[in-house]
Automatic annotation (TrEMBL):
It comes from Tropilaelaps mercedesae. PANTHER family: WD REPEAT-CONTAINING PROTEIN 46, WD-REPEAT PROTEIN BING4. One of its GO terms (biological process) is maturation of SSU-rRNA from tricistronic rRNA transcript (SSU-rRNA, 5.8S rRNA, LSU-rRNA). SUPFAM superfamilies: WD40 repeat-like. WD repeats lie at residues 118-159, 160-194. This is WD repeat-containing protein 46-like.
Length: 226
């Protein structure tokens, strides 16, 4: 059914899982109660809880769908086509997605309005994260570049060559000060986001595929299926 993508709700209580073969499951992680489990019968590429753990977004083979925790389809967002990754800005009610074609979209989920649609002209965008301190969106690209985006600007507001090969993941701490990147060059870099300079660089023996940072500044890594 896998590999799987996942999303935790903002308070960390609810877990959403999406398998590449179409399996979706939502849990109350505290009580281990299953909220819903469905199979959408097509590939799943990204999942994301929205402003409350009663609705979530799923990037499927063609389009992006919204579901409730009963597994009922609420809406199909056909403007969000072939999405590879997404994040949600809770203070703006904006679902932000990156696509196979190199577009970044900002959609107001309260009204369904497309707020902004930017063509990065960089091809497929494998990584998309947000700075929780200011809502700026950060994309990671196959040429090792990371870029920062705002719907108020028609071009990226910052750009830096982070790795010698493709960026695999990006994470930013809650204060918006430290930016951590990982790449296929088997390096993990910690950046001062205000200066866009690496403060620490670690070379490891394997390629880190995903990063997660806790509120206590503990960094977790995954390596393929480990």
């Amino acid at each position: 059914m896998g590999p799987y993508v996942s999303s935790y709700s903002r308070e960390g209580r609810h877990l959403l899982l999406g398998g590449r073969m179409g399996h979706l499951a939502a849990f109350d992680w505290l009580t281990k109660k299953l909220l819903c489990e469905i199979n959408v019968a097509e590939s799943v590429h990204a999942v994301q809880w929205l402003h409350q753990p009663t609705m979530f977004a799923v990037a499927q083979k063609q389009w992006t769908y919204l579901y409730d925790t009963q597994g009922v389809e609420l809406h199909c967002l056909k403007a969000l086509y072939r999405v590879t990754s997404m994040t949600f800005l809770p203070y703006h009610f904006l679902l932000v997605t990156a696509s196979e074609r190199g577009f970044i979209h900002w959609v107001d989920i309260s009204t369904g309005t497309m707020i902004c649609n930017l063509n990065t002209r960089s091809g497929r965008i494998p990584v998309l994260q947000q700075n929780p301190a200011n809502g700026i969106v950060i994309s990671g690209h196959s040429n090792g570049v990371i870029r920062m985006w705002s719907p108020n600007s028609s071009s990226n507001i910052a750009e830096v060559l982070a790795h010698r090969s493709s960026v695999t993941d990006v994470v930013i701490d809650r204060d918006g000060v430290n930016l951590i990147t990982a790449g296929f060059d088997r390096a993990i870099k910690i950046w001062d986001i205000r200066m866009l300079r690496p403060s620490q660089i670690y070379s490891i023996g394997r390629t880190p595929m995903h990063l997660a940072l806790s509120d206590t500044q503990m960094l977790a890594l995954t390596f393929n299926n480990q």
